[in-house]
């Protein structure tokens, strides 16, 4: 029954050119919204205490993505699960190479970022969480992942986010990174003004 619903949804989207374009864009480029958000937040001017807090949140998000991606890479080396279109279980609505399907890295990383934003009391955490759901759904509907790939990615992303958030080592490392960033930025500004 679930497979019939899935195949009907794929058939419906493939027949509607506008829906297919939207699905393709979200599936292929949806994660870029997280990168764009990070760049805007990093360079947006604001009072120094607020800027340091926001940048520390972004460094935590980066640590979560690195940890989750490392786990995903290890899992991919141990167990290579073929993608649904490679097994003939679904038609690929979006072109993709036939690498390991489990876990969904897009879902994993976007959930890790969303949960970190929520844990650090950032107002963009909730919209990011909604976007994560949309992105994960698009990966399944486009035939690139099984639902279990997305659920596995969510689990790994949540664990990575939790570990980074509660790690004193990550907090210290984030503090060091921000300290050297601000010192380097101050030196660069001083040098630029003298030239």
Pick out its properties.
Vanadium-containing Chloroperoxidase, domain 1, mainly alpha, elongated, 195 residues, 9 helices
Structure description:
- The protein has 195 residues and is an all-alpha fold.
- It has a single domain (2-194), classed as Vanadium-containing Chloroperoxidase, domain 1.
- Helix content is 78%, strand content 0%.
- It has nine helices and no strands.
- Helix 4 (48-78) runs antiparallel to helix 6 (105-119) and helix 6 (105-119) packs parallel to helix 8.
- The radius of gyration is 19 Å and the shape is elongated.
- The model has no long low-confidence stretch (mean pLDDT 87).
What are the SSEs and their pairings?
Layout: H1 2-15, H2 17-29, H3 32-43, H4 48-78, H5 84-87, H6 105-119, H7 125-141, H8 147-166, H9 168-194
Helix pairs in contact: 2-7, 4-6, 4-8, 4-9, 6-7, 6-8
Oligomer: single chain
Number of domains: 1
Shape verdict = elongated
Quote the CATH topology. Answer: Vanadium-containing Chloroperoxidase, domain 1
Q: For this structure, what is the CATH class?
A: Mainly Alpha
Beta-strand level of the residues, as a percent range? under 5%
């Amino acid at each position: 029954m679930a497979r019939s619903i899935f195949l009907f949804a794929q058939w419906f989207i493939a027949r509607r050119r506008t829906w297919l374009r939207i699905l393709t864009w979200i599936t292929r480029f949806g994660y870029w919204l997280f990168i764009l958000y990070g760049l805007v937040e990093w360079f947006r001017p604001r009072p120094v205490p607020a800027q340091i807090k926001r940048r520390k949140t972004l460094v935590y998000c980066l640590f979560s993505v690195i940890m989750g991606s490392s786990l995903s890479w290890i899992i991919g080396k141990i167990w290579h699960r073929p993608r649904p279109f490679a097994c003939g279980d679904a038609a690929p609505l979006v072109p993709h190479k036939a690498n390991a399907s489990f876990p969904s890295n897009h879902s994993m990383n976007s959930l890790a970022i969303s949960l970190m934003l929520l844990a650090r009391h950032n107002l963009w955490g909730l919209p990011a969480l909604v976007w994560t759901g949309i992105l994960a759904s698009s990966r399944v509907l486009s035939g690139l992942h099984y639902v279990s790939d997305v659920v596995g990615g969510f689990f790994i992303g949540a664990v990575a986010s939790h570990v980074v958030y509660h790690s004193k080592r990550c907090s210290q490392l984030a503090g060091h990174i921000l300290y050297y960033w601000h010192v380097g930025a101050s030196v660069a500004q001083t040098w630029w003004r003298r030239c």
